[in-house]
Amino acid sequence: MIDYSDMIQPDKGQDARTIHLVDKQGYHEWLTGRNARERAHLAAVGFRPDAFVHAILPGDDPEKWAVVTTVANVDTLSAWCLAKLGQILPEGRYRLEGRQPGKALFGWMSAQYRFDAYRSKADIKGPRVLLTSDVGAIAPTVAEVRAAALVRDLVNTPAADMGPAAIEKEAERIAKAQGGKLTVTKGEALEQGYPMIHAVGRAAAKHHAPRLIEIVWGKEDHPRVALVGKGISFDSGGLDIKPASGMRLMKKDMGGAAHALALAELVMASGLPVRLHCLIAAAENAISSDAFRPGDVIKSRLGLTVEIGNTDAEGRLVLADALAKAGEDKPELILDFATLTGAARTALGPDLPALFANDDALAADVLAGGTERDDPLWRMPLWDGYADLLETDIADLGNAGSSPFAGSITAALFLKRFVPGDTLWAHFDTFAWRPSAKPGRPKGGAALGLRAAWAMLQARYDRRGRSEAS
Hints:
alpha/beta, Leucine Aminopeptidase, subunit E, domain 1, Aminopeptidase, 8-stranded mixed sheet, 20% strand
């Protein structure tokens, strides 16, 4: 386990190499203030103030070098503007010249993430430490980096080692560490109480049996918040089997569960004053003689009957039972996370989760949280005009739309049927994966929408330290 707390330290004047930040607007003025040797060196290496470009500035002796790097705006640092340096610089301590890193602390630490659990020989470098005088920012930033790393670790782990039982074990670790109460429903009780979760997962091997995992935490009189995660540990597509190309990344189909668990841990560890209910619908969508079939009709926990039009539209089935359970305790807010539709990726690409919400103010707050944390989302329409695409001849609704169009919208509309009408609800259709690396964001499992949701929850519920006027 990486110790991210080693990567940020309070600035007490200790020895550290200097990082100079420049942008295109101020580069010429900065350059004229450097000595002749530094100017000659930058000219020799062809330094230009372009994005993510850096250069080493020689010092009076070999150990006294510094760094110059380009950012978009030296007065408004993004979460990722120092990520490349955090990834490639030698181990040691560093200090920004004349300013505090602010949001860039996150990218600096995130860049030092690695997943080497399956490597016979890990390439381990010592930490690159960034100093800051903003001591109050250290612990919250470390907590967010750990949460994002947890999502990455869980998603990156192969399905053979991250089945429903392993997801349960992770939930148990979190609940035990934070004083939450863990409840797990499986077997006959799952079949009777959560028939759609059971149906999706019943074809899996016994050691990957489906289950509903719940954590309850917080004071009874605090506002009730439910976090729901899709935990499909591997999605073969079921009898509507995926092609090999579509199945290759399906270990990540529990990415929604990873987001919900990581966010739940943030809520509990911070002591956010809410009554938290985290629900993970964990199952493997496997193929066997006992697999659920196209044309089957399944009665949901809510009582609505669902005709199966496609066994590869299984995520909404397990989420629906979990959402129904969450609604029974009458929370004021439900957030669900799911790697739900390829349609969302077609519309928005891999980096931008689709956000659906039944309340404009809630959607605005989530989007604002994404802007604040550099964790963007895009709101999609929860348009009831497409609800007829879920109609079926023999059941209350179908699990697959009757049209190839608007796939992410019809999936969200399906989920909406299982959310109490008077409960605030937001649905995150996230990819949980990065197909190519960017500074601070390695290829593989990715937390997309996690910090946006966390910022919204903090703004909504954490009144500690605020004045009465605020």
